[in-house]
Specification:
two-stranded antiparallel sheet, three-stranded antiparallel sheet, 93 residues, alpha+beta, 3 helices
């Protein structure tokens, strides 16, 4: 599902115009982004939890040359699905 399809789905399920659904989606995504930038987790009950994790520096290899390279530490977004999401996906399998 892409952004346009998600906006269409939100508009249909929430009985909103597509413009209002797009604004609601943007507001939600901005809220999640702002919280994660501050280092705060975002918990959506029965859906999942978004967190910021620190990936440690490590050694890698250049795939073209095989030369060793240093990969710097980085902040990455983690997601742990909630029970409701896990159960919904299991039912479809």
């Amino acid at each position: 599902m892409n952004r346009t399809e998600l906006v269409d789905l939100i508009a249909e399920k929430a009985e909103l115009t597509k413009a209002a659904a797009a604004r609601a989606l943007d507001a939600m995504l901005d809220g999640v982004t702002d919280s994660l930038q501050k280092g705060d987790p975002v918990v959506i009950v029965n859906f999942g939890t978004f967190t910021v994790k620190l990936r440690a520096a490590r050694e890698g290899r250049n795939p073209s040359t095989g030369e060793k390279i240093k990969i710097q530490a980085a902040k990455v977004v983690g997601f742990k699905p909630g029970k409701g999401l896990k159960d919904a996906v299991k039912e479809e399998a």
